[in-house]
C-alpha cells in the first residue's frame, strides 16, 4: 500500500511538472474538459436557484396571508380541487348538460374569524409616451402587512390615495413613463399619478399598475359602459388570515360552495392522497411524468453525457499521446532506473488526473463566478427572481468528478501504448513495429451489425423512436471501435496519390494509434451532425408541403375583432400608408346585439350569428343527436371510411375571422384573394352571397344565417340536440367552383344584401394586394404606428413558407467543422512529432522547404476526409430510420382516424426523407480543404537542424 502511494505521488509530481512545462498542450486539453464542466455547473446553479421552495413560492403568491380564495367558475357548484388548486373539476357530471353559470359567494366560504383582503385584476388600455398599451390593472392594498412578499418596491412608495398608482418596472420601461408621471386610461376622463415602481418577483416582465381597491377598475368599467363599450372583465380573489391556519377540512368545506383555496398550511403539510377526493375520482389523470417516462428521461440524459465524454476523450486522447511521445525519453529513463510498465502507465494516467482535476476546479469555479456575476441577466432572461443562490456541493462535486474521470479515460490508451515500448526504443526514439489490435474492430463490427438490426426493427416493425435511437447509437459506437480497421482500408488508396498525400496517408495508416482516435472524434461529431441535419431537412420538407398559405403571396390582411370596429378605420389607413398597397378591400362582420360587443365576448347584450347547414347536407358522422352520443358509433369501420369521401364530410375552409367564416365585402375581396370568377363578381353585384363550401347551400341555392341573441339558451338547446333559438335570415347565394381557394373564408356577403336582410354590420378590417413584398423597414414603421392604437390587431403579410431550420443546419455544419479541424489539428501535431525524423531525412536529400508545409496540410486533410466520409455514412442511416418510424406512426394515426370517422378532416400523411446535400457537400469538401489549408499555413517551412536519429 505504501509503495503504491509513493509511486502514484511521484507520478503525479512528474505529470504536474510536464503539464506546466508544455503549457500550450495542457491548456488545450484543460479547455476541452473545463468548458463543458463550466456549462453544466452553471446550468445546475441556475436551475437550482430558479427552483423555488414551497415557502418561497407561497411568499410570492400569498404574501403573509394563510390562504387565497377564488371562484372556481361553476356558479357555486361543488368542486374537487388539487392541493395547489390548479385543477378543480365540478363534482357533478355535466357531459350531457350545460355547465352552471353565475358566481360563487366567496364570503360564505370564509371562516368567521378570518381577516380578508380583496385582490382584483382587470385590463385596460393605458396612455403612454408612445401611444396605448394593453396593461393589467391590479387593485390590492399593498400597504397591508398581509401582502408582504407579493410585490417588491423599487422606487417611491405604494399608492395611498384613490388618484395614485404604482407601476411595474417593466411597464415604466416600455411605456416611457417614470415615477411622478401622470397616467390615464382610454375611455376614462380621469388621471392618476405614478408614485412608485415595483416588480413582481415571479414575473419580471409583467406590465401592471397597482391601485387602491375600487380606485381604477370600477370607474373605468362605468365609463366604458356609459360610452357603449363592453365592460372590462374583473377577476377578484381574497387573501385571508385565519388564526391557526386554513386547514384541509376548511378547504374541502369551501369546495362544497364552489370556491377553491390555495392554503399555506395544506401545501406545507399536505394530507395523504387518500384524503384528497380529486385523486380518488375515476376520471382523474395525473399528467406528471410516469416512472417509465422519468427512467427514459434519465436514460436520455445519461446517453448525452456519455456521448459528450466519449467525444472529449477522443479529442483529448491524441493530445495525451503527443505528450507521451515527446516524453518518451523521460519515460525510458524511468524504465532504465527500475520502473516497470505500471509505473509508466501511472505517469501518463497521472497527466490525465492532473489536467482533469484542474479542469474540474477551473470549470466549477468559473461556473459559480459567472452565474453569480450574471445573476441579474439570468433572472431577466427567465423572467423571475432566484429564490436564493443555491449551491449544492454534492452535485458540483459529481460534476467535477466527471471532469476527472474524463481526463483519466482520455489518458488510458496513450498510457497503455507508452507502457508497451521497450526501454531501448524509448531512449533512442525508435518507433518499432506496430501491430493493430484485431479484437476491438471485431467487437465494433458486432456492435454495428447488432445496432443496425435494432434500428431496422424499430423502423419497420415498431413505433418506438427510442428503439431506433438506441440501435443507431450502438451502431455509431461500433463504428468508432472499427475506426482503426477502417483507417487501414483507406491506406489502399495511397498508390494513386502524389508524393505528399501518399506520405500523409501512409503515415496515418502506419500510426493508427494516433490517427484512429482523431478520426473517431470527427466521425462521432459528423455522424450526429448529419443525422440531425437529415432529420431537420426532411422535417423542413414536410412542413413546406403541409404549409397552407393564408393569402396569395405578398398579400396582407389586418383584422380587429374588439371594440365594435371603433379602431378599424385607423388601422386600415395605417396599413395603406406604410405598405406598397395596390388594392384595398374593406370587410365588415355581422354583429348581433350591441354593436360595441367584441367578437366571441358573450357578455350581456351580446350575441352571435351562425350558418344553418341544411339537414340534407349534414355529415352523418358529425350530426348532433338528442342524447349527446357520438353519431359515428352507428356506422361500421367500412362505412366510416366510405363516408370520409362524402362531400358533406369534407372539412371546410379552416381558418376564419368570424364565427361562421362569413365576411361582408364586395368584389375587391375576390381580386385580392386571386379568385378569378366573373360569375362570382356578378353574383356579388346582384346582391347574392358567394359561398366557398358546398354544404352551406340548400337545394334552392340559398344560405340561411341564424341570429342568436341569447347565447346561453342557444348553447343549452344545442347540447340537447335541439334547434337553437334565433331569427333566421335566408339569402340567395352562388356556389364558387369546387377547389376555389378562399383562404379560410366560408363566404362573402355583399353589403347591400346584409342591409336588405336587416343585419347589423361593424367594421372588421381589410385585405390588401401589394405591388412588391413589404420591406423590413416598412414593416417596422407599420408595427410602430399600429402599436400606438393600443388594440389587438391580427396582421399578416403572406411571405410563403419560411424555413426555421436553415440556421440550425448552418450551426450544425459550423459545429462539425470546428470539431473536425480541432481533431485533425491534434492528430497533425502528433504526426509531426512522429515524422520529424522523416522530415529531416527529406531535407537532407534535397527536398524543398515547402514539403514540410505540404505534408502537414495533407496529414490534417487525410484525417478530416476519413472522419467526414465515415461520419456522413454513419449519420444518414439513423435519420432515415427515425423518419420511417415517424411515417409508420402517422399512417397508423391516419388509419385510426379513418376507422373512427375523422379521416375526412385530414390528408394522407406526407413524411419525406431528404438528404441535405448542401450540408454534406460543405462537410465532405469545404471542411477537409479548410483544415488542410489551415494546417499548412500554421506550419513552419523549415525545421530546426539536428542529427538524424538512428532507426
Helix share of residues? 40-55%
Could you say which structural class the secondary elements and strand pairing correspond to? alpha+beta
Strand content: 5-15%
Radius of gyration over C-alpha positions, nearest whole angstrom:
37 Å
Structure description:
The chain is of the alpha+beta class and 951 residues long. The chain is built from 28 helices and 20 strands. The strands form three sheets. Strands 1, 2, 3, 4, 5, 6, 7, 8, 9 and 10 form a ten-stranded mixed beta sheet that branches. The protein has a six-stranded mixed beta sheet with strand order 13-16-17-15-18-14. It has a four-stranded antiparallel beta sheet with strand order 12-19-11-20. A hairpin with a 6-residue loop joins strand 6 and strand 7. Helix 2 runs antiparallel to helix 8 (291-326), helix 8 (291-326) packs antiparallel against helix 18 (512-546) and helix 26 (806-844) packs antiparallel against helix 27 (850-900). The longest helix has 51 residues, at 850-900. The two termini are 40 Å apart.
Amino acid at each position: 500500500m505504501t509503495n503504491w502511494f509513493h509511486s502514484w505521488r511521484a507520478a503525479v509530481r512528474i505529470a504536474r511538472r510536464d503539464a506546466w512545462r508544455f503549457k500550450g498542450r495542457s491548456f488545450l486539453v484543460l479547455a476541452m474538459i473545463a468548458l463543458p464542466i463550466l456549462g453544466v455547473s452553471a446550468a445546475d446553479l441556475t436551475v437550482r436557484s430558479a427552483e423555488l421552495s414551497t415557502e418561497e413560492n407561497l411568499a410570492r403568491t400569498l404574501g403573509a396571508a394563510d390562504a387565497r380564495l377564488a371562484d372556481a367558475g361553476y356558479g357555486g357548484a361543488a368542486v374537487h380541487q388539487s392541493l395547489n388548486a390548479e385543477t378543480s373539476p365540478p363534482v357533478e357530471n355535466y357531459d350531457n348538460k350545460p355547465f352552471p353559470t353565475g358566481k360563487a359567494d366567496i364570503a360564505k366560504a370564509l371562516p368567521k374569524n378570518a381577516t380578508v383582503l380583496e385582490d382584483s385584476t382587470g385590463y385596460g388600455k393605458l396612455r403612454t409616451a408612445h401611444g396605448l398599451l394593453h396593461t393589467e390593472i391590479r387593485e390590492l392594498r399593498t400597504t397591508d402587512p398581509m401582502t408582504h412578499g407579493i410585490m417588491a418596491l423599487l422606487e417611491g412608495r405604494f399608492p395611498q390615495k384613490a388618484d395614485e398608482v404604482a407601476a411595474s418596472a417593466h411597464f415604466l420601461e416600455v411605456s416611457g413613463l417614470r415615477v411622478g408621471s401622470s397616467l390615464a386610461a382610454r375611455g376614462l376622463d380621469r388621471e392618476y399619478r405614478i408614485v412608485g415602481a415595483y416588480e413582481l418577483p415571479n414575473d419580471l416582465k409583467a406590465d401592471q399598475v397597482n391601485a387602491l381597491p375600487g380606485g381604477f377598475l370600477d370607474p373605468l368599467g362605468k365609463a366604458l359602459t356609459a360610452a357603449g363599450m363592453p365592460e372590462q372583465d374583473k377577476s377578484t380573489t381574497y387573501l385571508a388570515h385565519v388564526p391557526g391556519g386554513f386547514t384541509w377540512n376548511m378547504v374541502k368545506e369551501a369546495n362544497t360552495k364552489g370556491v377553491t383555496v390555495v392554503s399555506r398550511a395544506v401545501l406545507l403539510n399536505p394530507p395523504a392522497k387518500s384524503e384528497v377526493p380529486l385523486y380518488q375520482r375515476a376520471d382523474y389523470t395525473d399528467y406528471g411524468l410516469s416512472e417509465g417516462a422519468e427512467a427514459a428521461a434519465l436514460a436520455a440524459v445519461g446517453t448525452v453525457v456519455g456521448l459528450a465524454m466519449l467525444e472529449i476523450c477522443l479529442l483529448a486522447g491524441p493530445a495525451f499521446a503527443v505528450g507521451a511521445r515527446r516524453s518518451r525519453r523521460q519515460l525510458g529513463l524511468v524504465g532504465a532506473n527500475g520502473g516497470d510498465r505500471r509505473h509508466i502507465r501511472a505517469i501518463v494516467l497521472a497527466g490525465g488526473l492532473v489536467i482533469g482535476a484542474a479542469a474540474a476546479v477551473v470549470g466549477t469555479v468559473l461556473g459559480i463566478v459567472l452565474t453569480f456575476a450574471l445573476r441579474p441577466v439570468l433572472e431577466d432572461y427567465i423572467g423571475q427572481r432566484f429564490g436564493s443562490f443555491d449551491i449544492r456541493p454534492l452535485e458540483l462535486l459529481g460534476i467535477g468528478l466527471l471532469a476527472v474521470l474524463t481526463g483519466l479515460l482520455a489518458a488510458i490508451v496513450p498510457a497503455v501504448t507508452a507502457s508497451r515500448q521497450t526501454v531501448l526504443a524509448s531512449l533512442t526514439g525508435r518507433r518499432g513495429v506496430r501491430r493493430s489490435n484485431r479484437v476491438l474492430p471485431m467487437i465494433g463490427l458486432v456492435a454495428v451489425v447488432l445496432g443496425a438490426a435494432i434500428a431496422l426493427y424499430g423502423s419497420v416493425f415498431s413505433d418506438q423512436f427510442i428503439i431506433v435511437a438506441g440501435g443507431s447509437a450502438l451502431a455509431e459506437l461500433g463504428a468508432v471501435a472499427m475506426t482503426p480497421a477502417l483507417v487501414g482500408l483507406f491506406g489502399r488508396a495511397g498508390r494513386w496519390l502524389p508524393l505528399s498525400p501518399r506520405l500523409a496517408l501512409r503515415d496515418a495508416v502506419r500510426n493508427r494509434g494516433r490517427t484512429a482516435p482523431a478520426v473517431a472524434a470527427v466521425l462521432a461529431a459528423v455522424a450526429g451532425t448529419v443525422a440531425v441535419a437529415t432529420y431537420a431537412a426532411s422535417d423542413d420538407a414536410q412542413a413546406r408541403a403541409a404549409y397552407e398559405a393564408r393569402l396569395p403571396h405578398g398579400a396582407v390582411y389586418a383584422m380587429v375583432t374588439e371594440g365594435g370596429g371603433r379602431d378599424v378605420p385607423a388601422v386600415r389607413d395605417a396599413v395603406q400608408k406604410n405598405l406598397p398597397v395596390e388594392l384595398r378591400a374593406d370587410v365588415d362582420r355581422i354583429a348581433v346585439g350591441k354593436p360595441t360587443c367584441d367578437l366571441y365576448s358573450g357578455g350581456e347584450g351580446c350575441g352571435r350569428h351562425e350558418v344553418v347547414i341544411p339537414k340534407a347536407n349534414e355529415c352523418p358522422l358529425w350530426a348532433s343527436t338528442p342524447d349527446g352520443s357520438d353519431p359515428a358509433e352507428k356506422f361500421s369501420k367500412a362505412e366510416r371510411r366510405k363516408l370520409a369521401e362524402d362531400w358533406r364530410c369534407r372539412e371546410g375552409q379552416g381558418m376564419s375571422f368570424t364565427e361562421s367564416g362569413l365576411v361582408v365585402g364586395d368584389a375587391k375581396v375576390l381580386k385580392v384573394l386571386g379568385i378569378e370568377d366573373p360569375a362570382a363578381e356578378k353574383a356579388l353585384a346582384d346582391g347574392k352571397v358567394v359561398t366557398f363550401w358546398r354544404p352551406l347551400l340548400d337545394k334552392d341555392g340559398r344560405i340561411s344565417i341564424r341570429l342568436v341573441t341569447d347565447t346561453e339558451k342557444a348553447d343549452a338547446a344545442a347540447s340537447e340536440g335541439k334547434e337553437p333559438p334565433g331569427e333566421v335570415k335566408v339569402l340567395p347565394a352562388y356556389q364558387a367552383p369546387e377547389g376555389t381557394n378562399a383562404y379560410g373564408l366560408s363566404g362573402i356577403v355583399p353589403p347591400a344584401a346584409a342591409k336588405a336582410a336587416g343585419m347589423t354590420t361593424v367594421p372588421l378590417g381589410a385585405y390588401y394586394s401589394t405591388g412588391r413584398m413589404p420591406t423590413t423597414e416598412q414593416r417596422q414603421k407599420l408595427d410602430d404606428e399600429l402599436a400606438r392604437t393600443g388594440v389587438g390587431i391580427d396582421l399578416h403579410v403572406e411571405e410563403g413558407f419560411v424555413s426555421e431550420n436553415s440556421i440550425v443546419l448552418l450551426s450544425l455544419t459550423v459545429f462539425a467543422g470546428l470539431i473536425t479541424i480541432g481533431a485533425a489539428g491534434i492528430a497533425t501535431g502528433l504526426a509531426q512529432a512522429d515524422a520529424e525524423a522523416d522530415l529531416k531525412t527529406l531535407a537532407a536529400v534535397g527536398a524543398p522547404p515547402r514539403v514540410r508545409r505540404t505534408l502537414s496540410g495533407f496529414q490534417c486533410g487525410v484525417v478530416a476526409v476519413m472522419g467526414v466520409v465515415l461520419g456522413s455514412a454513419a449519420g444518414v442511416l439513423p435519420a432515415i430510420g427515425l423518419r420511417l418510424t415517424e411515417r409508420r406512426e402517422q399512417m397508423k394515426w391516419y388509419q385510426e382516424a379513418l376507422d373512427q370517422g375523422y379521416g375526412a378532416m385530414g390528408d394522407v400523411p406526407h413524411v419525406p426523407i431528404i438528404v441535405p446535400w448542401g450540408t454534406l457537400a460543405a462537410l465532405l469538401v469545404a471542411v477537409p480543404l479548410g483544415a488542410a489549408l489551415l494546417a499548412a499555413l500554421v506550419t513552419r517551412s523549415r525545421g530546426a537542424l539536428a542529427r538524424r536519429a538512428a532507426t
